[in-house]
Amino acid sequence: MVMLRLDSLALSRSRFALSPFAETLAAIVQLARPAAESWNPEWHARHRGEFHARLRADPYARGLVALISATKWLPDHLVVPPGGGMDTTIESELAEVAGVPDEVVAEGVRMSLAHSWEERQLDWFTGRDHGARAAELFRVAWDTHVAADWPARRAVLLRDVTHRAGLLAAHGWPRALHLMNRRSAWVGSDAIRFSDRPGPDRTVGADGMLFVPISAHRSSWLCQAPGRPYALVYPARGTGAREAAPDGDRALARLIGTGRAVILRHLDTPATTSELAALLDQSVGTVGGHLAVLRDAGLVDRTRLGRRVLYHRTPLGDHLADGRPGA
């Protein structure tokens, strides 16, 4: 059982961050598998063929992807904590990966191979500049499979951070971190159980740690690098996948209109107008108009959190969206 131990100072300085690189890593693992619990099943079906065609043409990329999709220990050069907080860019993260020395990459790959649940060979791991080669693989994966969806993905991630920040303000870190992944849990007053697998405990330094949401359903890992805070990557609440509407959704759409019904459904987690617009691929003006009607009807309300205005469902909106009797 791996524990992350934090004192009160480390806890007070912990914060959230975004990582386009971590989002790309999760996307690569999803596309490598035949039945991924992906950001969006339609996205998975649309991109998987091109992704595997590229792997067939590049033995190095094929070997690295096969390793990271079947191991309990990701190579160290692929799990560098994001350095830009909520504004971390893919360019800055790719530059860091490209700059990792070959000997550090080699040690991390060997560790990853030792923890693989499938027998692997390292015949693909030849030559030099392994950090730069990995960065190029991730650059192509980002450009081809992630970048176009990043605004919608980012909206999902921001909604999760907003939700947990609200819990943090009201109830403290234990409630904010509750069920962050399948294995994590707050233990006592000063520790987070990160994994139920055997492993050494980690002590979080005075700078605290980072909590980094991604859109994958189940993916979770720990990022670490010398001189940097630990970063816990975890699955955000909600994936943005568009599913076929059940009978209750169709009835709700007939009652209040399709656009407003979709927005009401998505407000199971509070969100800003711009976040909803990115998530639903609509203009801010269209979403704002729907929100105004829903607010006038008493189905949603709004709350200011710092510089952001969050919309959330009222109890009546909850009843209507959930199809509960007596709404």
From TrEMBL:
Keywords per UniProt: DNA-binding, Transcription, Transcription regulation
InterPro entries membership: ArsR-like_HTH, HTH_ArsR_DNA-bd_dom, Metal_resp_trans_reg, WH-like_DNA-bd_sf, WH_DNA-bd_sf
Lineage: superkingdom: Bacteria
Recorded GO MF terms: DNA binding; DNA-binding transcription factor activity
CDD domains, sorted: HTH_ARSR
Domain HTH arsR-type: 250-325
SMART domains (alphabetical): HTH_ARSR (SM00418)
PANTHER family given in the database record: ARSENICAL RESISTANCE OPERON REPRESSOR ARSR-RELATED, HTH-TYPE TRANSCRIPTIONAL REPRESSOR CZRA
Name listed for the protein in its UniProt record: ArsR family transcriptional regulator
Lineage: Bacteria, Bacillati, Actinomycetota, Actinomycetes, Kitasatosporales
